[in-house]
Amino acid sequence: MRTKIKTRFIHIGSFVLGFGFLGASDGIIFHQLLQWHSVIMATDRPGQIISDGIFHFAVTITLVIGGILLWLAGNPTNLSKGIRLLVGGILIGGGTFNIVEGIINHHILQIHRVKPGDPNALVYDLSFLAVGLLLLIIGIFIKRSGRTQLSSINA
């Protein structure tokens, strides 16, 4: 398989895997372990369990798709700076999950908050977004440093 196609699979697959991983982490940590919220809070407990189940099923499919794309890409160490592209993509995908989920579900749709009922709920919501932004920035930095070194090698 050509290097350009493998690189594309690493870019897309690592993003999808990171998006799914942060989604699964959110569901496990905030929904199940801390029991701070469910996907849809304005319903009875069985409705919350169903909404969380659909969410977990969706992020599981996302993880599988990301894994398949990375499997198709092959060993990232076979590409120049492949590990940087992989790690950067995972962080970008994870940060994107936090930002998209936080803005849409917490602020626009207001179907739940990170810690509903807490007097500092907005602080938790904004911290969730800040973590997402931090992951995104670090991921972009890691990927760009890999890409810069790639372009200087090819020059």
Automatic annotation (TrEMBL):
Pfam families: DUF2243 (PF10002). The chain crosses the membrane at residues 12-34, 54-73, 85-109, 121-142. Keywords: Membrane, Transmembrane, Transmembrane helix. It comes from Metabacillus rhizosphaerae. The lineage of its organism: Bacteria, Bacillati, Bacillota, Bacilli, Bacillales. Signal peptide: none annotated. Coiled coil: none annotated. This is DUF2243 domain-containing protein.
